[in-house]
Amino acid sequence: MDGNFRKPDEVDPSYFEFMKGNNMVRAAITCSLESEYVATVAAHRDLKVMWEKLADMHKSTCTASVHALRNRLLNIKMEQSASIRSF
């Protein structure tokens, strides 16, 4: 259920097992999400689409966090009276 397997046709004997596994993974993902994300991804039946939506949502959050941390790091300055040991 990592997106590498194609969904079998409905007449394929493995279809039921595939869908059972798909639904179990979807439920596990949905249950592990914070409530603000559930509505965005729960409507998607396809796990690959769910993962893509989650990745898109977190990409902007991660990018913003990286920029904020970089700015904080660049703004760290030692006070004029401080020594390297106390910094």
Can you offer a commentary on this structure?
The chain is an all-alpha fold and 87 residues long. The chain has a domain of 60 residues. Helices cover 62% and strands 0% of the residues. The protein is rod-shaped, with a radius of gyration of 22 Å. The N and C termini lie far apart (49 Å). The mean pLDDT is 79.
Q: Structural class of the secondary structure composition?
A: mainly alpha
Low-confidence stretches: none
Radius of gyration: 22 Å
Terminal residue distance = 49 Å
Number of strand elements: 0
Beta-strand percentage range: under 5%
What is the count of DSSP helices, taking H or I runs of 4+ residues?
Answer: 3
Molecular shape: rod-shaped
Order of helices and strands: HHH
Helix content: 55-70%
Biggest sheet architecture = none
Mean pLDDT: 79
Describe how the helices and strands are arranged:
Layout: H1 15-32, H2 35-42, H3 47-74
